[in-house]
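In practice, a research group might receive sequence data for several interacting partners and want a quick structural hypothesis before committing to experiments. The following worked case mirrors that situation: the sequences arrive first, and a predicted assembly follows.
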Amino acid sequence: MRQALKYLFSLNGAIASLCLCLIIYNIFHAGVYCIKKYHENLNLPVYLEPGTQFETFKPFLKNEKRAGYLTSKAITREDNDGILLQAQYFLAPTILELQDDSHLFSIIDSEDPPYIVKTIKTLNAMRTTNNEYGQALLLRRK
Amino acid sequence: MFIIAHLISFLLGYFSLSLIFKETRYYQSLLHLSLSIITGLCLSAYLTFFVFLLFNKFYAWLIVGLNLLSLLGVILLNLKTNKNIRTLLNPFRIHKLSFFSYSVICAFTLLIALYYYVASVHPHGEWDAWAMWNMKMKFLLLSSAPLDDILTNLSWHTHPDYPLLLPLINVWLNSFSHTHMLYVPFITCILLTVSCAMFMYTGLSLFIKKGYALLATLILGFHPYFAFSATQQYADILIALFVLISLICFYLLDKESNPAISILAGLNLGFLTFAKNEGIVFAALLSVIFLIRLWQQRNKQKSNLPCYVLFLITLLIACLPTIIFKLFLAPPNSDILPNISQTGLQMINVNRLAVIFDYLGKEIIHKKWCYIWMLILIMVITKLFKFLKKETLWVTLFFLSYFIIIIFIYLVSTQTRLNWWIPYSLPRIYFYLLPAILFHVFYVYWPQNKKIENT
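A structural hypothesis for the assembly, expressed as tokens:
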């Protein structure tokens, strides 16, 4: 008992006690995090794969090696909503070429009606399918 | 079904390491078992890489066949070197378990449960998981010309210059499925996270009392942000793991010059270079300290070949995929290298340096780290002299050098704004350095065992 107390009041003992306190603190926070996530996810039982909003596009692009991705949004390193990368991930192995309208199929992602109209007219394209998030798949008319 | 792939990798790693370890010492048995799955997965990933190099397509039967052939080869090599089955199965001998051992097993069971739950909170990983690592895995599995697509055709957002160890590990594990399985990266990240905690305990208990080793493991293991970051399905967990294993090898070599550990260190650093671009920097710095230390000990060595030669040869062989990838396949990295001809040197100024240091300091005291960095700082400050002793100075210098390199890269890179880049990248840097720094601090701080094999 005496040795244990001597150890506790030494520097090593103090650090060991600090470590133990940190472990308890970490376990508490890990527990809080798990409980919080459990309650958040009660209303979200299904985890959707990134890019699931492009599911309806997949049958059209199944045999396409490349497709265009046309957007009026900024796609820079810092200013990027990730939709292009989600689409690329979900539609793999079809390569999506940013701002390249030379392909048979192109995905248009814009909330700017003049841009959408201009793009459809320029490509002489028709809408094959779309999702409810503002993206559509265009097919060039022959 | 992909559990079979894990088993094949484990056996491949186990029997490959059997060629290196002579099992004369217990600590070698412990390391042997712990390292088998990680070494095996990396070797399988290397074999997968060579199939892609030759054929530029995913052939599951070829990849599986090559792995099985390699497994057969290493088993036969083991039997040829006069090892009988009893010697080969030495590490599996179950020693009598004490109460403390049961506590460790309970702790790891809880950790596995925690990591599974945290991983299931983000089952598809975070941004870079689906935007880079898992995307590359999908292209490797599904594309008709995967290397061309990944390295040339995909958008620059996917960092085509990054090495492919993690996607290749996942591709190998997917070889036992007809369609790509998103469950594979999920299980891989949990396995790597548990391995990190396991190496923390295994490594530290070789040098200090098991109680203190368990303290460090629990501090790391139950850390909420560590658990979250490790299960993001990024390659950062591979960096954390390999740097930790490298430190264990370094301190083992410090105690005694062992050819087996030299080979293991070279192998590990080779794997590290193929994990991520940062791995190349780590491997370069660690190679320097390994070579210096091995050169200093060259007169104490009993092997035919000096340990530093064995280390270099193994490192070069293990770096071969990285050398091929970086020299002949990958485009140059445009993120880090400064474009001095256009920007000049005006970015190197006190203002930028102050911003960087401000972020570095603020990250340490951020609440997500749950005061772990404060604990590390307290331990370093209270026994600062021990961190500057001859045997520990090299590792302390290694960490300081890496931080200097990070500060330099932030200082000279003009590709992005500092105020955007640092908050995004710095937590990840702290995350993959945390296990190694914690290991080093606990190794230095607590009294060490008289012998390595203190079981």
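Before designing any experiment, note the following. Chain A has two domains: 2-43, 52-140. Strands of chain A lie at 66-71, 95-98, 105-109, 125-130, 135-140.
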